[in-house]
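As a warm-up, study this chain.
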Amino acid sequence: MFRTTLIAAALAATTLAAQAQSATYALDPTHTFVTFEVPHFGVTTNRGRFDKKTGTVTLDKAGKSGKVDLTIETGSISTGTAAFDKHLQSKDFFNSAEFPTAKFVADKFSFNGDKVSEVTGTLTLLGKTNPVTLKANNFGCYQNPMLKVEVCGGDFETTIVRSQYGMPWGLNFGFSDSVKLVIQAEGIKQP
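Now compare it with the structure written out below.
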């Protein structure tokens, strides 16, 4: 009986220790940006960003695992040119009226030492879902001196093929099918 109790206590302690390693971070909208770059006739690059996004990251540094849930409001696209923004929100591109959000969900984290090196999941855009791997160009955690709490973040990027999401407009006259996504993300550790 004593041995069974001791084993149960050890298992409970191990489970609690494992749970204590996992932390949830709310993405900080003032330090999280989702931007895109699309070659324009092989001469210049069109760039823009999405101003409204929300999400959480669960990170277990010791277990080298995590989860991401990021929602982007497609109507919040901003290129600096109102007419271009309106065209990107139209049915030719993001169809923001019918598909107001895009979503990135991930549950596979790769690490290089103690730093996240890749995050693999799926991107849902225009009702279509495809696999996406974000490569980390930078990643770290620090104690924020103003918030008095841990903040983790990094710079991530990937390239998607927009026609796979049903966005072929302009391909027949020179607009690129490849879109580079650059994501700067910082999450604030939640109590």
